[in-house]
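User: I'm curious whether this sequence folds into something compact or stays loose and floppy. Could you predict its structure so I can see for myself?
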Amino acid sequence: MAAVSPSLSLFSRTPEPSVRKMSILSKFHSVASRTHCNFNAIFKPSTLTLFISTQRPHAHIKSPPRNTIRCLFTGIVEEMGQIKQLGTAENGGFDMKIGAKTVLEGVHLGDSIAVNGTCLTVTEFDTQLSDFTVGLSPETLRKTSLIELEPGSLVNLERAVQPTSRMGGHFVQGHVDGTGEIVSMEPEGDSLWIKVKASKELLKYVVPKGFIAVDGTSLTVVDVFDKEDSFNFMLVAYTQQNVVIPLKKVGQKVNLEVDILGKYVERLLSSGFVESIKSS
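Assistant: Here's the prediction. I'll summarize afterward.
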């Protein structure tokens, strides 16, 4: 499952999602007033959804294709870090400062670190204070569950793989495909069954006994429930103690990255690759 080197003690479970979102939402409104992004909050009973406009003020600047692999992870969590600070940066962006130890070993500016499975770039670090800073873009806030974080929250951390690293998990890009919602958490002995609901668009890539990254943790899918738009997995006792998933509650979001191999196969089939091979 997930091998880690725990350097931070476990803290009490994080606050309710609605409380955390409202805390971080006030900071996002500050960002919106200083950038081209519009943040409109729509409130429903026990639910808060953040919508961010898809306006792109610098559309003339081409971004790398989404599937371009610029860094690679294994889904083997190295440690749990703690959010120290969230707030707007001088340039109008949004910064997140994280307390950590293991991932700071040999760190350099510009390095990639997966935070709950989201590939983020180190913009500042302080080995004396044991923390580093990453920037969050509007697209990251739209696509991931990082919006639910607040100071004190724990996050899974993993440094990008080096050429000499062993692949303990599976190929994880740190490109979150979307979020899922925890719908049940059921103990069995000292293990924990967790069921996650996902969109049909993501669920089509999830297969029994296949890989999936949940909050950056490489896990094996046990069953897929198509009628319920969900899948489940089991966490053994060791994993429960060293990743953030068990600290969450039913109804909270998790970041999901499906196995990229399935997406490549789909792409090849839809492009007529198989037919071209047959005809050659």
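Summary: The domain at 178-269 is CATH 2.40.30.20 (Elongation Factor Tu (Ef-tu); domain 3). Residues 96 and 164 are 30 Å apart (CA to CA).
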